[in-house]
Every structure is written in structure tokens, then in C-alpha cells.
Amino acid sequence: MSPRKAPALHGTDLSLREHLVATAERLIAERGTTGLTVRAIAREAGVADGVLYNHFADKEELLALAVRAHVRTVGRGMGALPSPGHGSVRENLRAHVLYGIAFHKAVLPAFAGLIDRPKVLDAFAAGGVPGEDWRDRLRGYLQGEVELGRLAADARVDAAVAMIVGVCHETVLTGLLYGSSDSQEVTVEFVDDLVGVVLDGVGGARA
What SUPFAM superfamilies does this protein map onto (predicted)? Predict the structure, then answer.
């Protein structure tokens, strides 16, 4: 005879651990992580507070798993990125930049309540799969174009990645820190300028 399912799991195929992660993920997507407590997660999940500690080492582990799940859900919903060798490098890189900005707009608010919780951030980083993060995919794209000869063999891939990721962070974080929605609006001209600097250099330099 199979064990009885907890009442909170009726109508689902999830384990209680999966249900708790899914509940925390949904709360993070709706409210962010600021002020999110074990009690709030347990209440939303329909279980007693102490049940969480039967399935996770601590609340930091649960939060890290939920944030990672949120990031993956956002990524899956944003569609595919261009692959090396298809289309033009300029248009492909433009698509990567727009993707990166939209992705950061969707996920960075979830980290706002974790700035002073390094244990959660460390567990989040440890829970990733190599190559799955957008930064890694951007680097892989550029390196793929180098290998195909569509970018120079001595292209500074890591510097280009740092520049693009930095712009995405700055664009979104400025709005979060200063409460300005205007700073999060990115124009077509700005994206084109960024791609141009990455591919062609800043230009105009004089000795």
C-alpha cells in the first residue's frame, strides 16, 4: 500500500520537497525575496512551518533552490538565442543584448532581498549547471563565431562579455536602486551603439 499523500499535494504529482520549492518560486516571482519568510512559504504551501526543515538543510537551501528555479523558468519563457554561424554576427549580437536586458529585468528583482544573505547566494551559484547561465551562453556564442572565422581569432571574447553583461546589470540595477523606470528603457540606437563598440571598437582614439 503506497503512503498517503499530504493534503497539500492532492491533485499534483509533486513530492513535498518539489511542492515547497515550487511554492517558494511562485512567491518570489510575485513578491520578490525581500521579507520572504519560512512561515509565509509554509502557509502558502499549506503545511506546518517545521515541515520545511524535514526536507531542506535550512531556509537558505530552500530559497536558493527557489531562486534558481525562478531564473530557469524566466529563461525558458524567453525563447531561443541565435546560434553561431547563422544570420549576421551584428544582428545576432544585438539579439543577445536585448535578451540579456530583458532577462535581467525579469530576474534581478528576485535578488534584491538577498544582498545581505551570502549563504543563499553561494548556494544559488553552486546549484547552477555549467553553461546554462546567460553569461555563459553569450560567451559560447562569441567563441563559436571565433572558431567559425566570423570573428577575428584574437577577438577579446571575455572583455566583450564583461562589457555587455555590465551594461545589462547597470541598466536594470539603476532602476531598482533609484526607483526610476526611465533608466530601464533601452533605445534601439543604444543597443546598436553597444554592438558597434563591441564589434568595431570605440573609434576616434588619437595619439
Answer: Homeodomain-like, Tetracyclin repressor-like, C-terminal domain
